[in-house]
Amino acid sequence: MRRYTLVFMEQKMGMSHLTPIPGSAGEESFDSTDDDAALAYVCGRFMQRVQDCVRAELSSMAIVTDASGHGVNLVDDSLENPHFQETYIRYDARSRQLEVDFVSTATGLVSTVYRRAAK
Q1: How far apart are CA 32 and CA 13, in angstroms?
Q2: pTM for the whole thing?
Q3: Does position 88 have pLDDT exceeding 90, yes or no?
Q4: Beta carbons within 10 angstroms of residue 98's beta carbon
Q5: Backbone angles phi, psi at 68, to 5 degrees
Q6: CA torsion, points 39, 41, 46, 47, in degrees to nearest 10?
Q7: Engineered SS bond to 90: which of 55, 94, 109, 111, CB 3.0-4.6 Å?
Q8: First and final C-alpha spacing in the chain
Q9: Using an 8 Å Cβ cutoff, are 61 and 116 in contact?
């Protein structure tokens, strides 16, 4: 099992980057078995909320039983996965569905590589 967090992002006037919606309306957490099940859960439960924002960012952490065996800990294991990235989800008005926004993800990766190469 993994613990997923969905952060709803908005574009504020005068700011060049997206910011989380403030307060309890800006974030939801839930448990899911894997990324595909988490995306299905988001589509089933948060369609309107993603539609009302610019995009949502989905990230996860492993749920691991602690050493005593009585509780659980959340472990950020993203460094163990070389292909890890947050998943950007947006509402597509044409298809009226939620979809993974590969354009934003790719743009972030390209700009990072470009900055490293320019140094």
Answers
A1: 35
A2: 0.70
A3: no
A4: 20
A5: -75, -20
A6: 60
A7: 55
A8: 41
A9: no
